[in-house]
Protein 1
Amino acid sequence: MGKTLGHLQPKRIWEIFEEICQVPRPSKKEEKILNYLIDFAKNHDLDYKQDRVGNLLITKPGQAGHEKKKTVVLQSHVDMVCEKNSDVEHDFDNDPIVPVVDGEWVKARGTTLGADDGIGMALQLAVLESKDLEHGPLECLFTVDEETGMTGAFGLEPGFLQGKTLLNLDSEDDGELFIGCAGGIDTTATFSYESVNNETDHIAFKLNVSGLKGGHSGDDIHKGRGNANKILNRMLWNCERMFELRLAQIDGGNLRNAIAREAFAIVTIPKRFQKDFETTIQEFTHDIREELQTNDPDVKITLHETAMPECLVDYSTQSRLLGALYACPHGVMGMSPDIPDLVETSTNLASVKMTSKEITISTSQRSSVESLKKDIADMVSSVFQLAGARVKHGDGYPGWTPNVKSEILFITQTQYKNLFKEDPKVLAIHAGLECGLIGEKYPGMDMISYGPTMRGAHSPDEKVLIPTVEKFWDLTLAVLKNIPEE
Ligand SMILES: [Zn+2]
């Protein structure tokens, strides 16, 4: 062991990381890696405990002369995303990951590397085994199952941790310090409808919206991309008024955390309006293409005559549905006043799905401010309740509100600048992090998240930039050394 990476610096981090690569650790199958960590604690005479969901805490007293420093929690997650190229044979439950050095990067052979978050774990273990570092009391928290639902962080109980300062070692860009993330909640609206007979003298069309970029409802929500549900509905709502349009079928979007890329409807109109209807859709197509020419230029709207549907959605439900979809907000609702360019609050009109009796609209809201998350979720429910739909909220997960006056932020910023002679960027993300859940269980926990530079996380292209691992180590040691006394 330690053969491939043992020549890299800092030596112990890379040796330990290579050892971790030998231990299978898919999300929800973490027994092997947890046993490895428990053995590590036993071999180094360190206290450890485990909670009901499997999270592990290894503690180490402060070094002589540093016992009075505030306790610091170092946190990583033990699981990894298991993705491989189709031409690679690999059994993630049993086979070791094979790390290879490629220029300035370490990557794996056709699989995810697990530097997310194996490098964070390796750093924790290197600090735990050290004899000569200047640090106060430490709690190393290893959470389970970050990648498929954050169930470890969800299950973390109050009282498990003593420290009130936490370094989350799970970020992916050297030079970036994260101090906030968004919480999220789902809002689902359901309309019941009656199937009614076709109108006489109508003809049927399929109206289709496609070609949009879509993207993640957190990371991409501010990019001004088209939402297929909104575009489709805008045409339907207008044509209902202009041409007595009737709705037979509607379907759009898919995943709740994705911006809708495609949507279609089957509609009927009186035959006498055919020409004007077609012209109107052409005009909408022109306008929408103009509006999206910069952000989503491949949007495609098609209209084809189709077979008459068997029945229609009753007119009252149709009208309330189209009105509600039009009124329902989508996109950025507010920007952070503290962090430049951070979306604070947003909502995503994710999907519209139809069964023989019901039409269900799925939406999701995000905000780094808990009260604003509730506000936008209530705004969306209000729209659908006005339209007579039944509305439900999911349980949701909490955000992490940026605290620009945080002590750990000040220490980390100062040490970064001392060591590397440049200012780190201070950022927050508009997506979920474990820190949101940890902060909910431990109000007042002073937290920061950082890490070495990685690319391609969660894909077989995952790689970590070697020189930034040394910076990650040096920064962490400088921060630990400069933690003040209680
Ligand atoms: Zn991670």
Protein 2
Amino acid sequence: MENVERVCEFLDKVGTYYLATAENDQPRVRPFGTSLVYNGRLYIETGKSKSVSKQIAADPKVEICAFDGTKWLRISGELINDDDRAVKVAMLEKMPSLKAMYDPDDGNMQMLYFKNASAVFSSFTEAPETLTF
Ligand SMILES: Cc1cc2nc3c(=O)[nH]c(=O)nc-3n(C[C@H](O)[C@H](O)[C@H](O)COP(=O)(O)O)c2cc1C
């Protein structure tokens, strides 16, 4: 399995992960649950109207943390906006519950993919494993 698929599978398994952004010198963190592999990239989804989106536009460096009860995952990297309609459609097909809030043509739905990502799987019993994508 590709690195990016392994990371996405972990995010899918936990269901909820935590996305940290920076707002000037103030860290901001919140729960997220969207994830998609498309064209070999790991995407997450948000709304352009949200503060989180504005923070990423100003400073694309983010970190994600997730824990499955045994292992935890930290993904650091940059998030890049992708306005390709097809990737929005793919996200809504994977997670149909999003259709209650987003539409590919609403001018709000935003797909962001990781660039220069480093994903580290850690546990109390095994050496950390770093994947890049
Ligand atoms: C379990 C869970 C999953 C969530 N997943 C997402 C998500 O994938 N994308 C999103 O934009 N908001 C998601 N939210 C809502 C955000 O956490 C919420 O809008 C948050 O306030 C956004 O951060 P901000 O206030 O800094 O903009 C989720 C909330 C919960 C409780």
